Amino acid sequence: MGRICIAMLACVASALSAGAVDDGEDSKGFAFDDKVVLAYYYIWFDEDDWLKPLGNGGRREQLEGLHPLVGAYNSWDPAIIEKHMQQMNRALIDALAVSWWYAPGSRDKNETLDTIFEKAVAHNLKVTVDYEHGRAPLDEIDHDLRYFLERYKDHPAMLKVEGSPVVMVWTAWGHTPEEWRGVFDKLKADGFDTFPILSGSYEGGKGKRFLGPFRSLEEYTLVDVEDSGLADYMKTMRGYIDAYNETEGKKTGILAQHHATISPGYDETKNAGRKTINGGYLGAGWKDRTKFGVTYPDDPEGAYYRGTFEAAMASDPDWLHISTFNELAEFSHIEATYEHGYTYLDLTAEFVRKFKGLEPPKAP
């Protein structure tokens, strides 16, 4: 009963707290064949993550050596969200996927998500969530997605494809494809015809069984893929999409897309929670930003990022996913820092222009 009441209240309050309803021509969002660039955005940082002493429950060990240009920040701060969106505009990003699940409370994820939607309109950015509780019980998933869709489906900043709100789901393997089909069919019956994206559950190809309930496959991190094999890896992902569209897609008229990931680097070895007892690391991944195989010796700063972009382009992607804008704890960020300046934002803009076939900026 409590969840039903919360959902009803959210529906009534949505127009007041989440922004105006989008009744214009833009309400359909992107066309199916539009090229879209999306970045993962994380909203769980507070200034203590940089300031707490080691051993006091903080994350300074993970974030040591990182100094964002916006300073040690609180993710819920509207001024910080504004500065981040200015950086996203500089990088020519189209949309952001906010790491989220329903979490009521002071300065909670729901409040911050409201601010993000409000701020995104002025920056011409579209917003969806990367729903992180894909392994939760099905009734909880239904509640959380219903809350999100009731609140934002008509918001002018809602990321849509052909009129359908995009919903990304992390760890979708927590339920079967049939169960996910049931989740989305139930939402559709109640007026929420979504465009679901499988987030980070590609599982080296096993995730293709989720095509149908989901409209794309995505590999969030490339850390377990050898650089020399990355282009072929992404071409294989493309092949699964093409094969599905030639068979099930033709039968149902509902086609899938190929979403390829690009990443500036990765380092979770600083995450204390992933250390083993003997001081080594269990499952901790690492990709050096200055290397991609043995290529790009003259451009060490962005070598890995450029290598992942070229591997992605070899697979003829429909969308590009940037992993990530600011997952600082895993050092996969393109956010501007004192260590790297605007290098990764400007590389992103270069990649976006190539991906979309846009002219390079004119020299001043």
Features:
TIM Barrel, 9-stranded mixed sheet
Set down the secondary structure blueprint.
Layout: H1 2-17, E1 36-41, H2 48-51, H3 60-63, H4 78-90, E2 95-100, H5 109-122, E3 126-131, H6 138-152, E4 160-161, E5 164-170, H7 177-189, E6 195-199, E7 216-217, H8 230-252, E8 257-262, E9 266-267, E10 286-287, H9 303-313, E11 319-322, H10 343-356
Parallel strand pairs: 1-2, 1-11, 2-3, 3-5, 5-6, 7-8, 8-11
Antiparallel strand pairs: 4-5, 9-10
- What would CATH call the class? Alpha Beta
Helix/strand order, N-terminal first: HEHHHEHEHEEHEEHEEEHEH
Structural class: alpha/beta
Second rung of CATH, namely the architecture = Alpha-Beta Barrel
Strand content: 5-15%
Regions with little confidence, pLDDT below 50 for 5+ residues: 1-20, 276-282
Please report the distance between the alpha carbons of the first and last residues: 61 Å
CATH superfamily: Glycosidases
- Which percent bin holds the helix content? 25-40%
Contiguous helical run count: 10
**Taking all residues together, what is the mean pLDDT?**
87
